[in-house]
Design goal:
Layout (H helix, E strand, L loop, with lengths): L1 E6 L2 E6 L6 H9 L3 H13 L6 E4 L6 H10 L8 E5 L5 H9 L16 H4 L4 E5 L9 H10 L1 E2 L8 E2 L3 E6 L3 H6 L5 H7 L2 E4 L8 H18 L7 H9 L5 H8 L1
Parallel strand pairs: 3-8, 3-9, 4-5, 5-8
Antiparallel strand pairs: 1-2, 6-7
């Protein structure tokens, strides 16, 4: 059985049944192409494990959708799914967001704060845009993964953590390793299993399906009955879609 919820790129169908449903879930959400089917098979293979998964792909390709699929078809699905965009938070605040802080540990810390690692206990921590993680925090994340414990900012007692980690990036992490802006040892630790998402322009068979799906949602929300003509579809097929599925949805 599949249940619906909403995400930024449109409707997301969260699998609540057996692992075998994940392929149809991803094809319903992302498109019926062979590429998406293969991604579903990769999710089925890695979901039952505790491996850290790196999801690579350009913006708008569906990295959070795949991360949700991994969580909901894994042994961690009884715990929370906790997302954190590493690029949307100031580097000076990111350590506290990840690991939490103790009361009085810095100016303005008037109470103890639980970080994302603790909030994801028994579930999945999803770190999006991991390439934005400052160099200062990279060894802290590596230590947390290796020792399965963290220290809050200003804390002296280790806190055990048992969340499964999934990370995503639209940057070329190996290139960042060569540029010495991303630690090599952390990259290897995060890349225990990699799922690479193709661009929408490389799976054109999904364009018509997704366009009609988004159009159906828009028609319902706006009380319209718009359809796509053959010439309109040709325009969609001929465009490069640098923003991928997110851009297609906004265009519709």
């Amino acid at each position: 059985m599949l249940t619906k919820t909403r995400v930024r790129c449109g409707e997301l169908y969260e699998p609540s049944g057996p692992e075998s449903d994940v392929v149809s879930f991803l094809q319903e959400s992302m498109g019926p192409s062979k590429d998406i089917c293969q991604i579903g098979e990769q999710v089925k293979r890695v979901a039952p494990t505790s491996l850290t998964v790196l999801i690579c792909g350009e913006t708008g390709t569906g990295k959070e959708v795949v991360a949700n699929a991994l969580h909901h078809t894994s042994p961690y699905n009884t715990g929370p799914f906790v997302p954190l965009d590493c690029g949307s938070i100031s580097p000076t605040l990111l350590e506290s967001e990840l690991f939490g802080h103790e009361k009085g540990s810095f100016t303005g810390a008037d109470r103890t704060k639980v970080g994302k690692f603790e909030k994801a206990a028994g579930g999945t921590l999803f770190l999006d845009e991991i390439s934005n993680l400052p160099l200062k925090l990279q060894p802290m994340l590596l230590r947390a993964l290796q020792e399965k414990q963290i220290f809050r900012v200003g804390g002296t007692q280790p806190i055990a953590v048992n969340a499964r980690l999934i990370v995503a990036s639209n940057d070329d992490l190996p290139a960042l390793v060569l540029a010495k802006t991303f630690r090599r040892d952390l990259y290897y630790r995060l890349n225990e299993f990699c799922i690479a998402l193709p661009n929408l322009c490389d799976r054109k068979e999904d364009i018509e399906y997704l366009a009609n799906r988004f159009l159906g949602v828009a028609n319902k929300e706006m009380n319209k009955s718009v359809t796509l003509s053959g010439s309109a579809l040709q325009v969609l097929f001929s465009y490069a879609w640098p923003g991928n599925v997110r851009e297609l949805r906004n265009a519709i």
